[in-house]
Amino acid sequence: MDLSVPSHANIEHMIEGIKTKLRMASGAAMQASAFSLEQYEDIHDVYEMVINKPNLSISEVEAVVSELGRLRKPS
Q1: In contact, 37 and 7? CB cutoff 8 Å
Q2: pLDDT tens for residues 27-69?
Q3: What is the dihedral of CA 59, 65, 26, 22, to 10 degrees?
Q4: CA distances, 38 to each of 8, 45, 49, 73, 75 (Å)
Q5: What is the rounded distance in angstroms from the CA atom of residue 71 to the CA atom of residue 67?
Q6: Fewest C-beta in 10 Å: which of 10, 14, 27, 65?
Q7: Which helix (H) or strand (E) element contains residue 52?
């Protein structure tokens, strides 16, 4: 998968990867459809940080979830 190309499919892949890595119990609340292509680079940055860290502290998980919340489209 070429994550250098912004697409909704890539956003879905990255959000699912982040949810899996964070072992999010409430993963259903974090839907890829809630994110815009306009936020692609920011989502990609978060994804790269999460995937490349072997372990995340509780405060890092909270920061990632907070950042993803900030990047979501307004409902």
Answers
A1: yes
A2: 666 788 889 999 999 999 999 999 999 989 999 999 998 999 8
A3: -60
A4: 11, 13, 19, 10, 16
A5: 6
A6: 27
A7: helix 40-52
